[in-house]
Here is the input.
Amino acid sequence: MITVRNLSKTYGKKDAAVHALRGVDLTIEAGEFVAIVGPSGSGKSTLLHLLGGVDRPTAGSIMVERQELTSYSEKQLSLYRRRRIGFVFQYYNLVPVLTVEENIALPLTLDGKKPDPMWFDELLERLHLEDKRHRLPNQLSGGQQQRTAMARALIHRPALVLADEPTGNLDSQNGREIMLLLRDAVRRAGQTLVLITHDANIAAQADRVMIIEDGQIRPMQLAVRH
Here is the structure.
């Protein structure tokens, strides 16, 4: 699914340069759930943004589904993000003037498409949002907003789901529920999930845990198999 070779990202120049990633190599199989952990400033979010086509590397190769992202034009990257990637963020990133239904459908709406009604209803039911579809984000609890963000990430059935601290803004009970729902949803659909977390309990649910420190993946990776 994903092959990264000698990936580097530097912000700034000369004395002000910050080396966010330093020669990262990794491989992620299709259908795998990988958790990435590490201290603040270690390069976790930078790696996720590069995999999602949100940013470009300074050097190195990113192959996703046998396509080299570093060769993509800005238009190609935009289509890649919209059609092949599902993003789940810590702060939800919902559009405040759109209803739950409209927020969920947004990736398809931007692409001039309409959601599959059966899949839409299934997501609403699975994420316990059936009675919230016409509400605005400010009428929802934090957990309901995050479930809406999850549905938006899954509505177009992306091959790759990228989650950046999806439970970081929730209490422990809501956090556990969100993770159970997310893990179940991607496994049923055979999707690949790459998730950043500071929570050891969440990381332990993954098929594999990668540790990043100072922009590099530690040689030893913790394997967690169920």
About this structure: The longest strand covers residues 18-28. Residues 2-223 form a domain with the Rossmann fold fold (CATH 3.40.50.300). The chain has one domain: 2-223.
